[in-house]
Amino acid sequence: MESMLEPRKEAPVGTPRIDNLAIIYVVLNVFWTTVVLAASVALWQLRRYECLRKRNVALSIAAVLLLQVYWAVNMVIYPLNGTYPCDLNYWVMSIYFPLGIALFQLQNVQLLSVSARQRELRRQPFK
Length: 127
What we know:
Blueprint: H1 20-45, H2 50-53, H3 57-80, H4 86-123
Helix pairs in contact: 1-3, 3-4
């Protein structure tokens, strides 16, 4: 077992790291991606329910999956240790993250619009 006071031995750049932190990152990445995909499939299959029909489920799933791709790519950078080009990380960061946030905000605006329309209908008297 390594001492906390001794410097950690680094793997040479270009070879993957296989230490405790890298294993935790990979296991957490696989587990969380599985949970997100399972929840997305369940949400897609239940989209006919009344509480979900008001929301744009496809837009929500697209936003979550784009943000999940961004998170998953950033989680594997440490274990890959330089085998993953920095340019690719830059493009993932500059495309997937803003697009995922934009889709998430678009879904929120759409839900706010539906809520405002329902509020208007509730205030109108019955004829």
